[in-house]
Amino acid sequence: MSESHSHLSNELPEFHIVIPARYASQRFPKKLLAPLAGKPVLQWVYELALRAGASTVVIATDHKDIFSAASNFGANVVMTRDDHENGTERLAEVAQLMGWFNDEIIVNVQGDEPLLPVDIIHTAVAALAKDAQADMATMACRIQHQEDFFNANVVKLVTDEKNHALYFSRAPIPWDRDGFSGTQDLNQAMPVFRHIGLYVYRARLLAQYSQMPISPLEKWEKLEQLRLLHQGVKIKVAYANGMPPHGVDTKEDLVKLNALMKSEL
Fold first, then answer.
1. Which of 73, 153, 235, 246 supports an S-S bond with 165, CB 3.0-4.6 Å?
2. CATH (domain of 241)
3. Is there a domain that residue 153 lies in?
4. Is residue 2 part of a domain?
5. Residue 189 Cα distances to 23, 46, 186, 231, 233, angstroms
6. Region of poorest pLDDT, from 11-25, 91-105, 128-142
7. What is the model's pTM?
8. How many domains does the chain have?
């Protein structure tokens, strides 16, 4: 870790990390238990979360096989209900079980992101801690390639002058009305950003989340953060220099990561 990032971590408030770990996955079932450079994918994620310096690191699962595997590598693991619609609802249950309240900061680290940089966690936690108006923070980085801007799988976002999110969309936003009227070439001067799916919450927001109805925008875009924007929640956006390494969504991803990590070990 660089000197500047060490300095940042010394100034961080206390925070907790929860790793939601579902057993089922449409594209790659049981992926969190798949072997990656000698350890399950989930163990790599747990170990990077420990390095982040959180007060608590806990894996939240709904399946006995993940509970057993996580216990075997020494993780703090809790069993949650199996009827949650998304990871945020699972976090809310964990926050209640752990007795976290009000201003306590909770980070949602995805269980399939074994190479997530710790710096990104620290940046998002610091951004939320310094913004009294926001009850949630997330990350973004600049879009460099035109194909990403027009790709519906790449979530875009726009913010206000205080870096609070105005909207998240799978559509290309903002739209350059004059520039796109002809060639639709991406203007590098235009501020276009993609969302990085790391979420940081104050505990009080998680307590409210399960009572919030699914919003029409969330239903169409299939983006759970739109439920919060629809309710007027302020979401702070912090910025990274680039996208973190890709996680494990498919078996092909696992093969690539195995080759990468074995070459570095």
1. 235
2. 3.90.550.10
3. yes
4. no
5. 43, 39, 9, 32, 30
6. 11-25
7. 0.90
8. 1
Q: What is the pLDDT of residue 8?
A: 52
DSSP letters of the chain? Answer: --HHHHHHHHTPPPEEEEEEE-S--SSSTTGGGSEETTEEHHHHHHHHHHHTT-SEEEEEES-HHHHHHHHHTT--EEE--S--SSHHHHHHHHHHHHT--TT-EEEE--TT-TT--HHHHHHHHHHHHT-TT-SEEEEEEE---HHHHT-TTS-EEEE-TTSBEEEEESS--S--TTGGGTT-PPPTTS--EEEEEEEEEEHHHHHHHTTSPPPHHHHHHT-THHHHHHTT--EEEEE-SSPPPP--SSHHHHHHHHHHHHHH-
Q: What is the pLDDT of residue 227?
A: 94
Higher pLDDT, 5 or 81: 81
Spatial CA neighbour of 114 closest among 55, 54, 46 = 46
The string of pLDDT tens digits covering residues 161-201 is 999 999 999 999 999 888 887 777 777 778 899 999 999 99
* Separation CA 65–CA 59 (nearest Å): 13
Instruction: Decide if 98 is inside a domain.
Output: yes
Give me the domain span that covers residue 186. Answer: 8-264
Q: Which residue has the higher pLDDT, 244 or 140?
A: 140
Does 36 reside within a domain? yes
**Distance between CA atoms of residues 116 and 245, nearest Å:** 7
Tokens of 187: 């203007």
Which pLDDT band, with edges at 50, 70 and 90, does 245 fall under?
Answer: confident
Amino acid at 166: L
Task: Look at the chain and count its residues.
Answer: 265
**CB proximity list for 230: less than 8 A, separation 6 or greater:** 215, 216, 217, 218
